[in-house]
Task: inverse folding
């Protein structure tokens, strides 16, 4: 009897353990399902509200002329504020941020919202590129700048695929505004990277200008404008924007040149004082820093000449192509 009771008790314990294990497994599955549902719900909410938030991010810059060749502190402060981010590649939350962006794009079907998302992502990548350049990671900065250009390319295709109308113009104006500021951001990034990285940034700037010219041509097009008219206007805008970019580069270089010269003057004063004090270690340190700044000044002048020549050459090619096209059209008209 005693053995039977012990056996029965053991069976009861085993049954309880199995039941407890099954319950825990079920609860674990339920917990993970609940957590997954919560994450998806949060992403859906973010996907719903972020486009609206993105449309609100313009920071009272209507009075700032980003088409001008001038560079003002107000313009720089504006893009520093608008193109800022709290997360960057390597941060714990960065993967979640990129997944959230992917998820938003997947569940977005409205074409206007797709353009807004593409432009928002381009802006975010440039904000990250600017941050990485500030931190000295120029490889990551150039990669992010190129990714921003790809997002702008997608936005341009979506805009150009639409008919000419008020709705198209409004969404194109949003893209045009962001791209105008993006070019200034890229120019600021360019100041902080090496020669090799600058070549890549220059290529991104050129492509961004081309995208912007095509989008602006869509804004300015008449309702019944032909594709040929829109394309011709895009070519002319491209030349104008590139010339403005060269002039802005020169203004930025002048600011940078002045900053370096002021710093060199400060170092020269400290160097004179260190010599008088007989502090050779300090003299060597200040002399090295002065030599580096003077070398950078020389590089700035060389880059300015190279950049002006590059854009000028491209503009001449574009002008020659335009003249050839006009000649062909005139010949065709004479034949008719």
Result:
């Amino acid at each position: 009897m005693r053995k039977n009771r012990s056996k029965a008790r053991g069976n009861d314990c085993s049954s309880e353990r199995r039941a407890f294990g099954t319950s825990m497994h079920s609860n674990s599955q339920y917990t993970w399902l609940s957590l997954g549902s919560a994450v998806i719900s949060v992403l859906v909410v973010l996907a719903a509200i972020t486009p609206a938030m993105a449309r609100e991010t313009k920071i009272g810059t209507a009075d700032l002329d980003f088409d001008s060749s001038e560079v003002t502190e107000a313009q720089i402060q504006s893009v520093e504020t608008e193109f800022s981010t709290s997360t960057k590649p390597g941060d714990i939350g960065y993967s979640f941020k990129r997944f959230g962006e992917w998820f938003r794009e997947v569940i977005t079907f409205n074409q206007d919202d797709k353009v807004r998302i593409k432009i928002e992502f381009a802006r975010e990548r440039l904000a990250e590129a600017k941050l990485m350049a500030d931190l000295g990671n120029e490889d990551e900065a150039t990669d992010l700048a190129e990714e921003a250009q790809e997002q702008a390319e997608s936005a341009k295709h979506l805009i150009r695929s639409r008919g000419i109308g008020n709705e198209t113009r409004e969404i194109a104006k949003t893209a045009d505004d962001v791209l105008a500021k993006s070019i200034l951001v890229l120019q600021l990034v360019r100041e902080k990277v090496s020669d090799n990285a600058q070549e890549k940034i220059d290529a991104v700037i050129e492509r961004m200008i081309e995208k912007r010219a095509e989008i602006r041509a869509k804004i300015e097009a008449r309702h019944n404008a032909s594709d040929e008219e829109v394309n011709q206007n895009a070519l002319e805008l491209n030349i104008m924007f590139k010339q403005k970019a060269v002039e802005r580069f020169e203004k930025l270089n002048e600011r940078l040149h002045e900053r370096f010269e002021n710093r060199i003057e400060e170092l020269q004063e400290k160097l004179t004082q260190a010599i008088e004090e007989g502090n050779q270690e300090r003299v060597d340190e200040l002399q090295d820093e002065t030599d580096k700044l003077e070398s950078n000044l020389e590089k700035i002048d060389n880059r300015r000449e190279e950049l002006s020549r590059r854009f000028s050459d491209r503009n001449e090619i574009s002008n020659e192509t335009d003249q050839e096209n006009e000649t062909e059209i005139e010949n065709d008209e004479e034949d008719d």
